[in-house]
Design a protein that fits this description.
This protein is α+β, with helices and mostly antiparallel strands. The protein is built from 11 helices and 17 strands.
């Protein structure tokens, strides 16, 4: 059993009291079976009808209400009520000089001198454990609204909506240890107490949230167990940042386009090897393919991270091995001393640093060196990719080999053109 010790992220003000289990009928207005079924939380009901993915932003203004009024407005309300552990808007942030423009943030408040906890990192799928902290123990004051499918072609908002006993509620709650403005958690079907594992319905829900936000600066992320997920209760993270992530600037090499219209590419010239899935005929077709990829990683015990970008139309998937290397003693002490946990945001290029020294000395070379440790080796990635493509029916093995050779030649030619490689 491989384990690492790390300081757990506190995402709820009730997390540190989780050991003191409350009986049913706790009376503190939580998200558990005792309180949520008789509560009336705000509800945003999005239209759940198949429709083509739009290349341009939405023409209607419903996204203004969802993102600016509802999500960010309510997030600021919780900030004014003192529910966060620190003021993230006061954290120093800078763009590191370099080709990709990695983003460094000094966030000393996220650590707060807590003692490290042991996490198992060699099992991506682990059973839900009700004795540990989970989101049913969150107080409803930390919840912004429910986010669920509705009827018709337009979204609807209700200030007070009773919970439908036949439709498990999904909620959006604040992360009390935010790393950026508007940092929230999307918790699908909270009462079902699902472990941290993606399924088709939950992944489609996350894409709907990205689509309803209607802004390229609002992204959702997912961390599997073994890839720096802190809590084994199904959740996505999301926040708003008005600049491009470095990974969004990285070049890609196309592998294929599926029958469903999904373009599949590989990341090029980026320190973490990954796959990129774009567009598709409908949001559901894109979601079905990427969720099948995530399920394959889960079933084959490969830790991974996911970034949902471009209003749900572009998705990055990164298999990773940093925690495994850490458990095996294969990560340098210099990198370990920074206490950076390279989860989805760090992999995407938003480096959350806990020490002022690291922030002041941050460079693109440091970011590249850290993230290179996260990535699978070229041989391992190619092996995983071949098995994954075959299992998901994305591309035939013989096609993949030919395309892979072409992409290598193309990437090499690009490197020569940009002066990265000098021919003797």
């Amino acid at each position: 059993m491989l384990t690492i010790k790390r300081v757990p992220t506190v995402v709820s003000n009730y997390q540190e009291d989780a050991a003191a289990a409350e009986p049913l009928g706790c009376g503190r207005n939580c998200l558990g079976h005792c309180c949520l079924p008789v509560s009336k939380l705000p509800l945003y009901a999005f239209p759940n009808v198949p429709k083509p993915i739009k290349i341009s932003p939405k023409e209607d203004r419903s996204s203004d209400f969802f993102l600016n009024t509802l999500l960010l407005g309510q997030w600021e309300d919780r900030m004014s009520r003192g529910l966060f552990r620190y003021d993230v808007t006061a954290c120093e942030t800078k763009v590191i000089p370099g080709k990709l423009g990695f983003i460094a943030q000094l966030n000393e408040g996220r650590h707060l001198k807590k003692r490290p906890t042991e996490f198992r990192v060699d099992r991506v799928l682990q059973p839900f454990d009700s004795s540990k902290f989970n989101f049913t123990k969150v107080g409803q004051e930390e919840v912004l609204f429910r986010f669920e499918a509705g009827g018709g072609n337009l979204p609807h908002y209700y200030d007070h909506a009773p919970v439908n006993q036949n439709s498990p509620p999904s909620v959006v709650a604040i992360n009390v240890s935010p790393i950026e403005y508007g940092h929230v958690l999307l918790i699908p079907r909270v009462l079902e107490c699902l472990p941290q594992r993606i399924d088709p319905d939950s992944f489609l829900l996350a894409l709907h949230m990205a689509e309803e936000a209607g802004s390229p600066y609002f992204r959702l992320g997912y961390n599997s167990l073994g890839a720096f997920a802190t809590i084994n209760h199904l959740h996505f993270q999301a926040y708003f940042m008005s600049t491009q992530f470095p990974v969004e600037k990285a070049p890609t090499g196309m592998v294929t386009v599926t029958e469903g219209g999904v373009k599949v590419s590989r990341l090029l010239e980026y320190p973490v090897r990954g796959l990129v899935y774009e567009c598709g005929n409908t949001l559901k077709e894109l979601s079905d393919l990427v969720s099948s990829v995530c399920i394959w990683f889960q079933e084959n015990n490969i830790p991974y991270n996911v970034l949902i970008s471009d209003m749900g139309k572009k998705i990055f998937v990164f298999p990773q091995c940093y925690a495994e290397k850490q458990a095996l003693g294969e990560v340098s002490q210099e990198l370990l001393d920074t206490q950076v946990n390279p989860a989805v945001w760090e992999i995407s290029g938003h480096m959350v640093l806990k020490r002022k020294k690291d922030y002041e000395e941050a460079s693109e070379a440091y970011a590249w060196r850290l993230l290179a440790e996260v990535s699978l080796s070229a041989d391992r990635f190619n092996e995983v990719e071949e098995n994954l493509f075959e299992a998901t029916g994305t591309v035939k093995p013989e096609q993949m080999h030919k395309e892979g050779e072409r992409l290598k030649e193309s990437a090499f030619a690009d490197a020569i053109a940009e002066g990265c490689v000098v021919l003797q």
